[in-house]
Amino acid sequence: MSEPSDKKIYFHVGTGKTGTTFLQYRIFPKFKGIYYIQRTQYRRVNKIINRTNYTKYLISREFDQQLEEQVKLFAADFPDTIPIIVFRRHDDYIASQYRRFVKNGFTGRFTDFFDVENDKGYFRKTDLDYSRQIKILEDNFNSKPIVLFYDDLRNNPKDFVNKLARLLGVSVNNEELNLSRKPA
Question: In the chain, how many domains are there?
Answer without folding.
Answer: 1
